[in-house]
Each structure stands twice: as C-alpha cells, then as structure tokens.
Design goal:
The protein is α/β, with parallel strands linked by helices and 539 residues long. The protein has three domains: 193 residues, Rossmann fold, CATH 3.40.50; 152 residues, no CATH class; 167 residues, no CATH class. It is 46% helix and 15% strand. It contains 22 helices and 17 strands. It has a seven-stranded mixed beta sheet, sandwiched between helices. Strands 12-17-16-15 form a four-stranded antiparallel beta sheet. A two-stranded antiparallel sheet has the order 8-9.
Length: 539
C-alpha cells in the first residue's frame, strides 16, 4: 500500500497521528552514518513513531524495535520488528537499551518528543528529523548539555517532494549520547537511569541495601487477584493493567519517599544510592516480568496451536522482551505480533513434522521424481536434503523417537505424538489428543487410537493409532483423510505443488480431495481471540 492510500486509510479510522514517511535520501544519509559508527556489527535500532517499518528496514540489518500508536500501521510492520510500546508519552525509555534510536516526530510536538528522547534514550546515538528551529530552543540545548551529548546536522532537507508532502524545512540531526564500541552495546556518556535516580534520591548515601521481594509470593498473589476479578466477569488485560499500574505507582512512591529522608540516615544504615538504584531497577524489571508472564500464560489460545519446539521458541521470544510496560495498547500490539509470528510457525511446523518422519520406509516419491531417481537412492536423497519430492506413506516407523520404557511413554515420544495432534488441529482435524496422551497406560506394542471430529459433526473418527517399543521406535498408522491433507500442505509449503492441478498430477490424490486439502491451514486471526471471553476486547 503506497503512502497516499495508507494516509487515507488512517484518516478514515481516525488514526492519522501525523505520519510523514521519512524520505529515502534522509534514511540513506542516516544509514551511511550508522555504518560508519557501527562498522563491525549491525546495530539494533528503536524507531519511535515507526509507521509501517520502512525506516527500520532501511536503517539496519540488526534487531528492530518500534513504538507506534496506530493499530493499522502496527499490522503492516514486518514480522522481524518487535513492538516495545504504542503511545510514546506512556513509555519509559530509560530501560530500553539499544544501539541507536531514530525518530521523525509529529512536528506539532517535536520539542516534547526531542526533550524526552534526549533525556531518556538509553543508546549510543540518537537520530531525529526535526524542524530547523530546534537549534534555537533553549530547553533542547540545555538537555543536550545535561546528557554531555553532541548534536550535529548531517543534512538539511524538505518534505515538499516526499511521499506525503509537507511545507517544512528539516534537519537530520545526529545526537551522540555515548561511546559506540564493537564489543557490546553503546555506553551512554550519562546513564539516563542514573539521571532519574539522581533527580529523586540523595547522593551522599553509603553502602548496603538488602534485596526485597518474594517472587513466588508475588506471583501467587497476582494470580489470585486476577482470577477473582475474572470470575466476576472482568477483562483480562484491564485487570492486569490496573494491577500493574497500582503496583508500579506504589513501588515508585515507596522509593521516592526515601528522597525525603535526611542523607545521614543512609550513612547510618550503610545504604548507598547505587544499591537503591540496583534494587529499584530489579524491582521494576521483576514487576514487568510478573505481569507479562501472567499475560503470556493466558494466551494459550495461540500457544497451544504450536508444536513443542515452536511453542518454546515463541514463549522464549515473548518473555525476552518483558521490559515493555504493561498497558492495554502494548498488550494489543504484542498480541498482533504474536498472531503474525504464530501463523508463520503453523506453516513451518507442518514442514518440520513431515521431514522428521521422512525415512525410506515412510515416503513415496512424486511421479515426476520416479523418472529421475532410482528406488535405491531414496533414503540418501531425502536425508541429504537434495531436491527430491516426496510424500509420507500411511504407515510410518520412527526410529530413535523415544518409544516406551518400563515406566511408560518417554518424554520425546510424548512430545512427538503431541505435535502430530497439534498439526492435525491446524489442518481442521479437531482433536483433544494432547490432553489424552497422559491419561493412557503405555506398554510395549500396545496400540492406542487418537480421534478427531469434523467441523459441525460430533461423531469421532480415528485420526491415527500408535504403538511404542522398548527400542525407542514408534509405529504410527494415519487416517487417509488426514495424511492426504498433510501431504498436500507439505508439498505446497515446500513449493513443490504450485497449484491444485499440479497437486493432482504429482500425488495421485483425487481432484475432489485436493480441492479441500490445498491451502487448508487454519490461521489464527483476531476473531480467534474474541471467542475467549477474557480476551474478547483485546484486538
């Protein structure tokens, strides 16, 4: 979607927050400076007011972070851009450490944006596209001095010929905030977190401050409060956000109260400001972790649709970014990101599952491959990942998959069977197999059946049956209807089956069956969450 069309869409939905896409010339100028500054490693960049992500794409090949208010623009961001917040004024920037920050702010508010960024940006360098009159603003120049920073105009330009034209003359400004080294992320000359501490606490305190907090008790208390309010019909995000804001306000108030104490009291108690700073930083981080963890645990409508490996990767990536403030808009933005990335996983986990089962005894070649490769070469070609097109047979024997032991089903086998059930669900074969695995008694060579239901039909049909053995093997027999759909979608996702006609020719499956199989992965959409009462108002 071009800029003009996007602007019209934003205005139609009252989400035009002065998005004026930065021109290619301005971005090229900044990219050149970034490349000269970070010569060895691609910098991670935070874009405040990121729009559709075009600036981040142009500026770095490294990690990309965004703060963006418009839901429409958030939905267009590339999947490798992680949302750190929505409303710029609500975000704390002091704990969001990156290599560089970029911002092309709303020009009606550029002074407020510039002051906040210079004061709080935890980065080595800050780039801003701002009206030329910034140079004569006393507050901006004073803030630059307080950060021991240095401002330099890289180039001057205009938006007259931009994708979205505007009559404004601007400077592309580089503000050096810290040392940029190869070894690690830049160190600011003046730590913005230290600045905040120094503004609120005395500087003459002395050593030792005991660690406060019982994480397990805090988690338990939070869960109890949330569960009580949800039982009463509360909205999950609203409940979490209210509790988070209350606890954060209490936490900050408690620490700020210390600033009113006589400095000599700190010496008498052997407490230093550095100890207070460390404790507060840890408490704030722990508080954010606590509420995002609780939120992620209740996003099982998304995470339970992922195979074990992809679910672990998704949770790990989500929890690695819990320095984001917990607000409704941030929860919404991260959920949009989670849906987008989960849908990529839904496709990849089909490929992963079939390739794990692709052994010589388990596959048949596509008709076009049978003319090229001999029977004796199947195993070699499949395992060497040479271009050979194949599909699974109805019966598969999986070696070294865990099997069963004297104490029951092995962890590896449990995980693999669970992944089959999850992939089947994504292909429209509704089943409760994951929950059923641990209710069964697993013994050597004992057959267990797993069942599915069709949409709108309560009748159960066999999805697959499985037997485990002490040698670590699993023997699985799939229902033809499920295997046909699995094979067709595997071939489509691998790029082997370009359309339905080619699918019929290569697989030999009936055309009517192909019609229902091709492109049949059930994707996660915002309406998926709306079926869960406590998440209905999230997206």
């Amino acid at each position: 979607m071009n800029a003009c069309t996007m602007v019209a869409t934003l205005k139609q939905h009252n989400q035009d927050y002065e998005w004026y896409p930065t021109t290619e010339e301005m971005l090229a100028c900044i990219r050149k400076d970034l490349d000269n500054t970070f010569r060895y490693d691609a910098p991670d960049v935070l874009d405040c007011g990121a729009g559709d992500g075009r600036a981040l794409k142009a500026l770095t090949d490294g990690k990309k972070y965004a703060i963006e208010r418009s839901k429409i623009l958030i939905s267009t961001l590339p999947h490798d851009v992680f949302i750190l917040g929505t409303d710029f004024h609500e975000q704390t920037l002091i704990d969001k450490r990156v290599s560089a920050v970029f911002c092309n702010p709303p020009y009606k508010e550029f002074v407020q944006w510039m002051l906040k960024l210079i004061k709080e940006a935890n980065a080595g360098v800050l780039y801003m596209v701002v009206p030329k009159r910034w140079k004569t603003n006393q507050a901006i120049n004073e803030q630059i001095k307080q950060r021991h920073a240095e401002a330099k105009v890289l180039t001057s330009s205009t938006f007259i010929t931009a994708d979205r034209a505007a009559r404004v003359d601007v400077d592309v400004v580089r503000i050096s905030l810290g040392h940029c080294t190869r070894a690690e992320r830049p160190h600011p000359f003046i730590d913005p977190f230290n600045t905040w501490i120094n503004e609120n606490f005395p500087t003459t305190a002395n050593e030792h401050y005991s660690e406060y907090g019982q994480k397990q008790q805090a988690r338990k208390d939070t869960q109890e409060h949330v569960n009580q309010e949800l039982v009463a019909g509360g909205d999950l995000v609203e409940v979490l956000e209210n509790h988070y804001r209350q606890q954060l306000a209490t936490l900050l108030n408690n620490y700020q109260t210390l600033s009113a104490l006589d400095p000599f009291i700190f010496s008498e108690m052997n407490i230093t400001v550095s100890q207070i700073k460390g404790s507060l930083a840890k408490r704030i981080s722990g508080l954010k972790d606590l509420y995002w963890e609780e939120f992620f645990n209740r996003l099982d409508v998304i995470t339970t649709r992922l195979s074990s490996t992809h679910r672990e990767m998704m949770i790990k990536k989500l929890t690695s970014h819990t320095h984001v403030d917990f607000t409704r808009s941030n929860a919404r933005a991260i959920t949009i990101w989670a849906i987008k990335n989960a849908n990529l996983c839904l496709d990849q986990q089909i490929i992963d599952l079939v390739e794990r089962m692709a052994e010589k005894a388990n596959v048949t070649l596509y008709k076009s491959n049978k003319m090229t490769f001999g029977e004796e070469n199947w195993r070699y070609l499949v395992h060497k990942q040479i271009l050979v097109r194949y599909q699974l047979d109805y019966r598969v024997v999986l070696t070294s998959c865990g099997g069963v032991t004297e104490s029951g089903l092995s962890d590896n086998a449990r995980s693999f069977i669970g992944d089959i059930c999850i992939v089947a669900n994504s292909l429209g074969f509704l089943n409760e197999g994951v929950g059923r695995i641990d209710t069964l008694s697993w013994e050597r060579n004992q057959r267990h059946e797993f069942f599915y239901r069709r949409v709108g039909d309560a009748t159960e049909h066999v999805l697959f049956d499985v037997r485990g053995f002490f040698n670590g093997n699993l023997h699985i027999r799939f229902a033809p209807a499920f295997l046909e759909r699995l094979n067709v979608e595997f071939g489509r996702l691998k790029g082997w089956l370009k359309d339905k006609q080619e699918a019929v020719q290569e697989t030999g499956i009936d055309p009517d069956v192909i019609e229902s199989c091709f492109d049949s992965v059930t994707k996660i959409t915002p309406s998926t969450l709306q079926k869960v009462p406590e998440l209905a108002n999230l997206v």
